[in-house]
Amino acid sequence: MKVGRSKTRRSTQRPQGALRTIVSVYSACSALIVVSTVAALAQSPVKFDSNRAWGHLQQVVAIGPRPAGSPAIEQTRKYIREQLAAIGLKAVEQAWEDETPLGRVRLVNLIVTIPGASKDRIAITGHYDTKLFREFPFVGASDGGSSTAFLLEFARVLKARKNRLTYDLIFLDGEEAVVDWRGKDNTYGSRHYVEAAKRDGTLKSLKAMILVDMIADRDLGIRRDSNSTPWLTDIIWNTAAGMKLSNYFLPASTTVEDDHLPFLAAGVPSVDVIDLDYDAWHTRRDTLDSVSARSMQIVGDVLLAALPAIEQRLAAH
Ligand code: 1BN
Ligand code: ZN
Predict the structure, then answer these.
(1) Pairing assessment for the beta strands 121-127 and 206-213 based on DSSP bridges
(2) Strands 103-114, 92-100: parallel, antiparallel or unpaired by DSSP?
(3) What are the φ/ψ torsions at residue 123 (nearest 5 degrees)?
(4) Cα distance between residue 239 and residue 207, in whole Å
């Protein structure tokens, strides 16, 4: 009996014990997988997604030419506001009227704030208007379109991250000359933003500005701009070099007049990330055929990777 019982016990105990061991090892493994996945998710920040940016670009280009003051630019604003609202962000309108060589025009900058740990701000800016050409329909896929699409996707990424500084994404109106890039017939939006920020005292908290313009050229090649702040340019171009992207963020220099000039004149360190070596620039060929999502991906990856060093530099000064 004794032997039989123990035999019976042994014969039932062994599989139960083994099963219990398997179950507990399995549970431990599952728990480990869950913990490490959660940790990985917490550590891996949301990435710039050029497919989303491309979708925005298609929508914006489909609106057609979008010169300042046109019904089409109002339609573009509606699209920007709706896309931002869809990711839980509110665009604040800064509207005003300006004298242009073609008369008085209503202009509107759109500003989105993504609060960070500090109230000090970095602005990421770009223009959303297109240059008026009467001879052909100019849809500005890279010139006006890429900056708009980029800012929309960048806003999504920044909102999903924990940021040390506050970020303002500024969709600038009226970058383009209404007639000729001379005197005051250009950069209406950036000039207005800076003047208003000076007047209301908010410019003091603006510590740096990064301007993106024409960043979707399918043959991307961005030269350094000698008007831009050297330390800010160095951080971005060194980041690109560290990512083996110097074929796109080129060591060569040029000199650019653009929306960064009013910020620089007001003492805000600023950089213009612009591909001026764009065959289709200010031609009817600045369409989706001349641009690529990959170019926006490169710029998105580099700028996101450069932000910690920019924040670090601002914290140290
Ligand atoms: C950029 C895109 N710009 C106009 N459309 C500014 C600019 C004007 C850059 C003239 C270089 C020369
Ligand atoms: Zn232009």
Answers:
(1) parallel
(2) antiparallel
(3) -100, 135
(4) 20
Rounded to whole angstroms, how far apart are CA atoms 200 and 282? 36
Give the mean model confidence (pLDDT) for residues 57-67. 98
Distance 158 CA to ligand 2 centre (A): 27
Q: What is the mean pLDDT of residues 42-69?
A: 94
Could you tell me the distance, in angstroms and rounded to a whole number, from the CA of residue 188 to the centre of ligand 2?
13
Whether residue 139 contacts residue 94, with contact meaning beta carbons closer than 8 Å, is answered with no
Q: Quick check: CB of 143 below 6 Å from ligand 1?
A: yes
d(CA 107, CA 122): 23
Which of 254, 260, 244, 256 lies closest to 301 in space, CA to CA?
Answer: 244
Burial class (CB in 10 A: 0-12, 13-18, 19+), 195: middle
CA distances from residue 42 to 32, 33, 144, 160, 252 in whole angstroms, order as listed: 15, 14, 35, 11, 38
Q: Six-digit token pair at 196?
A: 């208003």
Domain 49-315 has CATH 3.40.640.10: no
Q: Please, what is the end-to-end C-alpha distance for the chain in angstroms?
A: 86
What pTM did the predictor assign?
0.89
103-144 per-position pLDDT tens digit: 999 999 999 999 999 999 999 999 999 999 999 999 999 999
Q: What is the pLDDT of residue 6?
A: 35
